[in-house]
Specification:
The mean pLDDT is about 75. The protein has 2 helices and no strands. It is mostly helical. About 70% of the residues lie in helices and about 0% in strands. α1 runs antiparallel to α2. The N and C termini lie far apart (about 45 Å). Keywords: Membrane, Transmembrane, Transmembrane helix.
Length: about 55
């Protein structure tokens, strides 16, 4: 094979975009959980949002 000795380059841009999108999705989920708690006032929703935001 003519390209068997070549390695694919690792591009940092897709990896960076992936991590930025993950952080944005986490912040959006936390915001939606807090807004749901404020709208409905259920304690379970507040517990879920605080458990979601707490570090592992």
């Amino acid at each position: 094979m003519p390209i068997a000795d070549r390695q694919l380059a690792v591009h940092a841009d897709p990896i960076l975009v992936f991590f930025v999108l993950m952080v944005a999705a986490d912040l959006l989920t936390a915001h939606l959980l807090v807004q749901h708690f404020l709208a409905c006032g259920r304690v379970a929703t507040l517990g879920l949002s605080s458990a979601y935001l707490s570090p592992p």
